[in-house]
């Protein structure tokens, strides 16, 4: 097949706290094999290079629908940084004039508020991530315990104290010092692929700076170590409150930037995430499989 006969797919590459995805407009539903396309476009050198692919699709219950695929082609239920960028993608491409959008995900409908500067350019977005899930059967984890809060968990003969939280995606939160020296590519896959986790697992390693600040590194299922993870930052904030380590408002420092997380524990019970969004570049991709 010659390059001129391949399908040309317009795309935008965006990042939120360094979490970079390829964004495509699939409102007409004509782009096939999104999982294969995610693998293809996410590859460095041979593709665009990204943590995955996010497609904007029509929704019968919200303004838009988000479908999110990791770099290995697996479909994720939710992506906090991704949904913020997707709302900006829709606005910046004149697909909506709303600055408060509802977006359907596999974890339910989420609300995103776009934040503008004095020249009406998007500088950040705040998303209502909903209520954290603490029930192990819903996270899911194959265990008889109802919750994992500072739970002993053995990996490679080493015992970790873990707290399990789902924010639409499953997360294990682990507190330890020296996270910069941690060999995350070595240990991360053992958590991700542990047999107790039927849908695999995302894992955050966290250092507490103060009652209002933490640092984290994340191993994402299907993508490996990434510069940021929005649902992971939310899970860390919830776990930190449950373990008595921080207040309900916390700044989470990630390799790619920072996110402001608030758990409105006493009122709605929902978690809110705020952070910058940025378009890196746009282009056309000639798919090898379309």
Automatic annotation (TrEMBL):
It catalyses: (2S,6S)-2,6-diaminopimelate = meso-2,6-diaminopimelate. The record marks 171, 220 as: Could be important to modulate the pK values of the two catalytic cysteine residues. Keywords: Amino-acid biosynthesis, Cytoplasm, Isomerase, Lysine biosynthesis. It is found in: Cytoplasm. The active site is at 79, 79 (proton donor), 229 (proton acceptor). Substrate binds at residues 19, 70, 80-81, 169, 202, 220-221, 230-231. It is an enzyme of class 5 (isomerase). Its EC number is 5.1.1.7. Pathway: Amino-acid biosynthesis; L-lysine biosynthesis via DAP pathway; DL-2,6-diaminopimelate from LL-2,6-diaminopimelate: step 1/1. It holds the Pfam family DAP_epimerase. InterPro entries: DAP_epimerase_AS, DAP_epimerase_DapF. GO terms for molecular function: diaminopimelate epimerase activity. It comes from the Bacteria. Belongs to the diaminopimelate epimerase family. Catalyzes the stereoinversion of LL-2,6-diaminopimelate (L,L-DAP) to meso-diaminopimelate (meso-DAP), a precursor of L-lysine and an essential component of the bacterial peptidoglycan. Homodimer. This is Diaminopimelate epimerase. The lineage of its organism: Bacteria, Bacillati, Bacillota, Bacilli, Lactobacillales.
